[in-house]
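Please, why this fold?
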Amino acid sequence: MPKDKKWNVEEIEFKQKFIDRYSCLTCFADFKKYSLKFLRRAIRVNTLKISVKDLVKRLEDEWELTPVPWCKEGFWIEHKGEEKRRDIGNLREHLLGYVYIQEPASMIPPLALDPKPDEIVLDMCSAPGSKASQIAQYMENQGILICNDFKGTRMASLGINLQRVGASNTVSTMMFGQQFAKAGQTFDRILVDAPCSGTGTIRKSLKTIRMWNPNMIKRLAHTQNQLLDTAYKILKPGGILVYSTCSCEPEEDEGVVSIFLTAHPDMKTEKIDLKINRGKPILEFEGTTYHEGVKNTLRIWPQDNDTEGFFVCRMRKHNHSLTR
């Protein structure tokens, strides 16, 4: 959309079922207002190639950098000139892999995963690579990071982005996430950033409003539960599992976690301690009361921090024997 064209919020129509549902979950007026605002540009400094301090020095003359409170490598970025450039992708620093263009809410799952340099880590749904490159960065290019996706077209962007940022501890695989149960490999930490309805990302994809329907939500939740069950089977005792979506739907978020925790009592949720505004986890929806463990999950509405909407849950496996 041209930068001088104004969005007329009143011309955007939400389905009545969507309005009714979200009015029960949050302030719909605020949700609509922020979902129909332009998304602020943001970057994450890639410390595999440059320090945060040196990157700021390179950009601060022409660009206003506002730190993201919950991620020390993250910045909102705005051009200081009259033309207000928004083409961050054309920056030399981006082409060199010094920065990764990434929405600040998307930076949370790798922070919650907290990977260590000597570990074996799986990013089950990696493409296009924003979280995978962030995980590699936190692992300092040590250990092993398996980056998986199920489509060849998605693998292309994943490979390009990992190469650009200089991630050298990665192995890329292409399969449905559920197939890892047969692979025989176990992991210290697993990120399941699951395919979802994307209702937290309306502000960058208006088609989500048109595509939304409750039946789609149920189908996605089934797939999400399959991915989590697979992750459980290949997670080492004491290992960390992070589940995330860019959906605001309880059935894809707290509902999926609730089903998973009920099926696997040895998985315990852990609080995610970040400096961020957050919504209250949904404890009950449409007559279903969720597992008490969902109280530790992180629910972010677009209006909470002027970001995308996001959901993140961190869990630890407490049993002492591998699941076969």
In short: The CA atoms of residues 215 and 281 lie 23 Å apart. The chain has eleven helices and 14 strands. The domain at 105-317 is CATH 3.40.50.150 (Rossmann fold). The chain has two domains: 42-101, 105-317.
